[in-house]
Amino acid sequence: MSDASYRDAIFSTPLDRVARFSFDERVVACFPDMIRRSVPGYGQILAMLGPLARRHLRHGGHVYDLGCSLGAAGLALAGQLPPDAFRYTGVDLSPAMVERAGETLGAECPEHALTVVEGDIRDLDYRPSGMILLNFTLQFLAPEERDAVIAHLHEALEPGGVLVLSEKVVAEDEQDNAWLVERYHDFKRANGYSELEISQKRTALENVLVPDTLAAHHARLAKAGFARSLTWFQYLNFASLIAFKE
Ligand SMILES: C[S@@+](CC[C@H](N)C(=O)[O-])C[C@H]1O[C@@H](n2cnc3c(N)ncnc32)[C@H](O)[C@@H]1O
Ligand SMILES: O=C(O)C(=O)C[C@]1(C(=O)O)C=C[C@@H](O)C=C1
């Protein structure tokens, strides 16, 4: 398979029936472009992973990247930390993502201990870890499955460990939310997406990506046993939280 990444044009032509969004081969082929043009602050969040690991991960500690897609977080960490600073396991449910991520990480960071495995984060046998990344993945689980996953992650973390949770969020106030969603669509327009692409992608994500409020995320983290959590980044309706295990 070639390692070329294409421009996202998945929703650029009118579709009779817009299928549910899925992480298939077509999405894999354009994913780096899609996520960069669709997630406000994506690059800034990745750029902070090295500094967060330097501050919160013991030397040589293990990092999970759950729903790793093409392993961008692993690449970001490898670009910022020496090979002996951490071990990384990316996990993803999509075989197409895992195949491509394994090729990329092996080719780009041969010195670092970066592994990618196919797996479902809902029933993974977690090993003890110092840092767990959940970047734009929890939002794709059914809402009723989210508490149990976060509770498992809390159990898997070593004392002093951190969970970084990045998500699309919904504002509590309906008017605020409408404003944020409109500005998010402006963000997509500014990044070259057409009205048709924006509206068909929105349909494809309906009932597939179900965002929570920030308050619901913090409440879930507290219920799972995290001593403290805070929102360290927000750009429109996309946010990143960090939760600390005592
Ligand atoms: C928006 S992408 C994540 C982006 C990625 N974390 C990054 O930083 O580039 C969501 C990913 O979660 C994966 N996923 C969804 N449900 C999952 C599950 N139950 N177990 C593992 N991976 C899952 C999808 O296959 C997809 O690759
Ligand atoms: O395009 C959107 O509306 C999004 O919500 C962006 C989003 C995400 O947040 O995960 C949705 C699907 C793709 O995986 C990439 C980004």
TrEMBL record:
It catalyses: prephenate + S-adenosyl-L-methionine = carboxy-S-adenosyl-L-methionine + 3-phenylpyruvate + H2O. The keyword Chaperone does not apply. One of its GO terms (biological process) is tRNA wobble uridine modification. S-adenosyl-L-methionine binds at Y42, G67, C68, S69, D120, I121, N135, R202. Keywords: Methyltransferase, S-adenosyl-L-methionine, Transferase. Its EC number is 2.1.3.-. Residues 63-161 form the Methyltransferase domain. It holds the Pfam family Methyltransf_25. The keyword Methyltransferase applies. GO terms for molecular function: carboxyl- or carbamoyltransferase activity; methyltransferase activity; S-adenosyl-L-methionine binding. Belongs to the class I-like SAM-binding methyltransferase superfamily. Cx-SAM synthase family. Homodimer. NCBIfam families: carboxy-S-adenosyl-L-methionine synthase CmoA (TIGR00740). HAMAP family: Cx_SAM_synthase (MF_01589). This is Carboxy-S-adenosyl-L-methionine synthase. It comes from Halomonas stenophila. The gene is cmoA.
